[in-house]
Amino acid sequence: MMVLRSVLFVPGNSMRMITKAATLPADAIILDLEDAVPLPDKATARIMVRDSIKAVKAGGASVFARVNAFPTKLTDEDLNLVVTKDLDGIVLAKTETRSDIIELDKMLGKLEQERGLAPGSIKIIPIAETAKGVVNAYEIASASSRAAAVAFGAGDYYGDLGRSVASLTTGQTELLYARSQVVVCSRAAGVQAIDTPFFGLLTDREGLVKEATLDLQLGFKGKLLIHPGQIEPVNRVFSTAPDEVEHARKVVAAFDEAQAKGLGAISFEGKMIDYMNYRQAKDMVNFANVIADREKKRQQTGYVSLSQFFASTLPKA
Known about the structure:
The chain is an alpha/beta fold. The protein has helices at about 15-20, 40-60, 75-80, 100-115, 130-135, 135-140, 155-160, 175-190, 205-220, 230-235, 240-260, 275-300, and strands at about 5-10, 30, 60-65, 90, 125-130, 150, 190-195, 220-225, 265-270, 270-275.
């Protein structure tokens, strides 16, 4: 299980931001080669991203690289530079069809074979950020076993409708259909859904928490972020309270014991528990365990030395 509560974009052409990313408690870091990087800087950014992946991952987060969409003709060169053994996955910008994912799957398979990587080790997170992408969300989510999640990008989506996110109403009812479509289609395909970045002021912590809470209620498992200050509140919203986790552990233990006796449903603390309840409790426990393991690793790792970012270029002793 890949936990993706907080998924932070970091510009691939900013070494200062990349080195900081290694110290942040985000579940995943996306080293961005698309919107955050002007065309003249893309070649340099590819090299910076490639040489930073291992060090950023040492900080405890999963590491993805966002590559440019296929129509730009930049995707192949992006992949050729950033696909390495330490990369967890690729985020494909402006994914619109099943064929986009099938093509990316083939390209990744070829690179894995050439570079001695385990088949299927590089995961994919498509971003549905156009009307076409939202409509085709299920086909996109189910196109490859590499899919770790499907993300929703509201900025480009709303622009595709001829509107600006600056004109969104407070309740953002304009985005409700698209959000629900991405969540339901992703779940139907067996993958998690990640919501769009928050478009309010960076200082609006209350607005961020309110939006993340709505995401949680709709079924999203996490949120794309654009600033380190958003990590802690979003992690908190998408985490389960300790008492709920403890209750879930008890449900799992009681149901496992009942199943060993041949029972299909039990009464636990005054409530009927069936297989659906058991599965939900087990998912909650697994989710909590992954988070706990990640935090433990992060604490053990501690400080990430700047030299780790330049290990491939430093002279050997």
